[in-house]
Amino acid sequence: MSTEVKVPTLGESVTEATIGEWLKKPGEAVALDEPIASLETDKVAVEVPSPVAGVMGQQLAAVGDTVNVGAAIATIEAGGAAAAPAPAAAAPASAPAAKAEAAAPAPAATAAPVSESVDTVTTMSPAVRRLVLEHGVDPTKIQGSGKDGRLTKEDVLAAANNAPAAAPAPAAVAAAPVAGGTPGRKEERVKMTRMRQTIAKRLKAAQDTAAMLTTFNDVDMSAVMATRDKYRESFEKKHGVRLGFMSFFTKAVALAAHDIPAVNARIDGDEIVYHDYLDVSVAVSAPNGLVVPVVRNADSLSFADIEKAIADLGKRAKDGTLTIDDMTGGTFTISNGGVFGGLMSTPIINPPQSAVLGLHRIEDRPVVRNGEIVIRPMMYLAMSYDHRLIDGREAVTFLKTIKEAIEDPTRLLIDL
């Protein structure tokens, strides 16, 4: 008896997904609710659980295929364990054949069978595959520490650091030799993930639709850094989370948005939709690309609640456990490129939002204070905005309010 495994409901307005990875092979035992496949949607990766216990049957779609909600992608066969295939009967070898076999050189002990290489590669996630190619390691020679022995990024990095680089096993990515035995150059074609395709379309659509403009300012981080240093230990001891910069900037955005509500609004047709709440999309780097999970009602949260929410979203982004709801409904975005060392940028609006704040690295620079040149920890701020909705005066005033609140955090307490 077979039971079909169907694509589950993926969230509002999401009607299809891409098979990102098969977590079970045909013939493997499957427990009730055990994930058998990973689907990539426009926003997140979703695991598909088995509706029954049994044995993995036929896979009705291949990795990279697009499947609709409700479509059958596999079957689960009734039974407790997979039956081992019967070995083929060996035909008696003739004397000449036996001599030829004896004379043939034995295969190298380290060579992996083609089927093993293919299985290893097809069960790797796109992120792991990229690392394998970048570091030139043989995936068949790495012991996987993930679920069911699957390779993780950490496994590949550890192998790359502890052993000499080797050519990848799959023939599809091997470099072709040229005259003289010198390895040739190579190219690899990898299908874009659904999430990466969506990121590309949305960012290009933002450029094509919005009258986008960026304004800049810089901010002296001395006061915030002194506050963190003073209260770092007591804050973490009481709230169980570190006091970071994001809570200060989120609070500063909430303060400035009260005075300039257009930055927290959006255009819908020929109407402007204003929000009396602030849902901040926080740009987070995930294995498959940049994602922007949302901190809800950020204007009414405490510093500790903001830090806890951001820490939780960041962890789940790296683990691949964000849901569609986590990604939906932001009204303003904060992107911190400074964690990667970026000095300055022009961030792109996250539609249908109308503005995004870009944070950058902090570095000591000479500035003038009271007629004297002094060294201060400075950060460049960049705000990109939709000029159809937000005037230049409003954008500059908004960014100036954020600068003043960060340079004097007392303003965040007295709403000034």
Automatic annotation (TrEMBL):
GO terms for cellular component: cytosol; oxoglutarate dehydrogenase complex. Pfam families: 2-oxoacid_dh, Biotin_lipoyl, E3_binding. Its cofactor is (R)-lipoate. PROSITE patterns: BIOTINYL_LIPOYL, LIPOYL, PSBD. Binds 1 lipoyl cofactor covalently. The keyword Thylakoid does not apply. Pathway: Amino-acid degradation; L-lysine degradation via saccharopine pathway; glutaryl-CoA from L-lysine: step 6/6. Keywords: Acyltransferase, Lipoyl, Transferase, Tricarboxylic acid cycle. Its EC number is 2.3.1.61. SUPFAM superfamilies: CoA-dependent acyltransferases, Peripheral subunit-binding domain of 2-oxo acid dehydrogenase complex, Single hybrid motif. One of its GO terms (biological process) is L-lysine catabolic process to acetyl-CoA via saccharopine. It catalyses: N(6)-[(R)-dihydrolipoyl]-L-lysyl-[protein] + succinyl-CoA = N(6)-[(R)-S(8)-succinyldihydrolipoyl]-L-lysyl-[protein] + CoA. E2 component of the 2-oxoglutarate dehydrogenase (OGDH) complex which catalyzes the second step in the conversion of 2-oxoglutarate to succinyl-CoA and CO(2). NCBIfam families: PRK05704.1, sucB. Forms a 24-polypeptide structural core with octahedral symmetry. Part of the 2-oxoglutarate dehydrogenase (OGDH) complex composed of E1 (2-oxoglutarate dehydrogenase), E2 (dihydrolipoamide succinyltransferase) and E3 (dihydrolipoamide dehydrogenase); the complex contains multiple copies of the three enzymatic components (E1, E2 and E3). This is Dihydrolipoyllysine-residue succinyltransferase component of 2-oxoglutarate dehydrogenase complex. It comes from Sphingopyxis fribergensis. The gene is sucB.
